[in-house]
């Protein structure tokens, strides 16, 4: 290609009128129709399962609440059977069956959606070189990048956000029974706004890494690793500090339900002990006593005090909006970073 031809092409491209945003959006949706169909099929299957199980569980729980008196043997057996059949056993969440296992598996949905939808968006265009066609047809780098990244992000966030209503319906019997707190990690990540927020973050991270590496598979791998590390760090180290925990003393559970953060025992000499460390201090005759209060009464009479820090359920939406807010900011920065990388890369 001669210099004169190149200059002529550049002038022609510069004189092309910008493609309207509506046309760019239509092209984006048409190009991603395979991903849209795949995501719709996956979420449709999940939604169908949640609807069917929600109907079954709510009907079963209605039978539990209709049994009177609640203290009767028959009613207690019915409640225990409901818990075992629909919430699951006492083993690990993945192995217990019921809603525990379903909730655990649902935690993989945001990162899988984000990685498989976000990673190929830009990286595949860069791998094949088809991005050059869009840049020379009046779209421009910035407009093409914004249309390619933002429209799928909005659609994905809206669809996963709608799942909150399904999750609440699915969890309603367990929340109403007090068996599950909204702060329980199995529930917190699916209720409120954070399910959609984590999906958006995974999508934005995958899109950014795909743009940066220009390869789909490495972008997916990095997204999975970063997502898992951040999700664990958030649940164990970041989320408990969204608000100062409430602290109460006493051997009874704090009034109301909530998320227990930590507990410790103050000894008479001021030493702080782990709750499990006091068992060696209590005489065997007390531990083997028929009285359920013998153990704590002995510790209280000898000057030991249990302290508990916890987050009450009333702070649920405060925590949801806090986590959703910083995830939204990080996602916007990642998408903005992807657009900046595209603007600066050579053709």
Q: In words, what does this structure look like?
A:
This protein is of the alpha+beta class. It has 2 domains: 21-244 and 313-344, no CATH class; 246-311, no CATH class. Helix content is 68%, strand content 7%. The protein contains 15 helices and 4 strands. The chain has a 4-stranded antiparallel β-sheet with strand order 1-4-2-3, with no helix packed on it. Strand 2 (258-266) and strand 3 form a beta hairpin. The radius of gyration is 27 Å and the shape is globular. The model is unreliable at 1-13 (pLDDT under 50).
Structure at a glance:
The protein has helices spanning 3-15, 21-31, 33-66, 73-87, 93-96, 98-106, 108-128, 131-135, 141-176, 185-188, 194-213, 216-238, 284-287, 294-301, 316-344, and strands spanning 246-249, 258-266, 272-273, 305-312. The protein is α+β, with helices and mostly antiparallel strands.
């Amino acid at each position: 290609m001669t210099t004169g031809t190149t200059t002529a092409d550049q002038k022609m491209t510069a004189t092309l009128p910008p493609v309207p945003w509506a046309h760019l959006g239509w092209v984006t949706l048409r190009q991603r129709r395979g991903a849209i169909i795949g995501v719709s099929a996956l979420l449709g299957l999940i939604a169908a399962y949640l609807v069917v199980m929600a109907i079954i569980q709510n009907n079963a729980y209605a039978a539990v609440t209709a049994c009177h008196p609640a203290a009767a043997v028959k009613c207690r057996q019915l409640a225990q059977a409901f818990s075992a059949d629909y919430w699951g056993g006492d083993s690990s969440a993945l192995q217990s069956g019921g809603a525990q296992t379903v909730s655990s598996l649902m935690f993989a949905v945001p990162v899988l959606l984000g990685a498989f939808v976000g990673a190929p968006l830009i990286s595949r265009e860069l791998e094949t070189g088809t991005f050059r066609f869009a840049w020379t047809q009046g779209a421009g780098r910035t407009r093409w990048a914004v249309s390619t990244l933002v429209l799928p992000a909005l659609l994905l966030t809206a669809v996963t956000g709608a799942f909150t209503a399904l999750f609440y319906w699915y969890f309603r019997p367990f929340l109403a029974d007090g068996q599950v707190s909204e702060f329980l990690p199995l529930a917190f990540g699916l209720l409120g706004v954070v399910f959609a927020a984590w999906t958006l973050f995974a999508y934005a991270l995958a899109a950014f890494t795909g743009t940066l590496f220009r390869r789909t598979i490495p972008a997916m791998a990095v997204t999975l690793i970063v997502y898992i590390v951040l999700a664990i760090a958030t649940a164990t180290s970041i989320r408990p500090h969204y608000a100062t925990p409430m602290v109460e003393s006493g051997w009874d559970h704090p009034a109301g339900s909530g998320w227990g953060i930590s507990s410790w025992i103050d000894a008479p000499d001021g030493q702080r002990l782990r709750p499990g460390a006091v068992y060696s201090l209590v005489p065997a005759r007390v531990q083997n006593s028929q009285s359920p209060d013998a153990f704590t009464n002995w510790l209280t009479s000898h000057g030991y005090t249990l302290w508990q820090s916890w987050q009450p359920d009333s702070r649920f939406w405060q925590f949801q909006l806090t986590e959703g807010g910083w995830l939204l900011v990080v996602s916007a920065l990642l998408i903005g970073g992807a657009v900046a990388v595209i603007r600066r890369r050579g053709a």
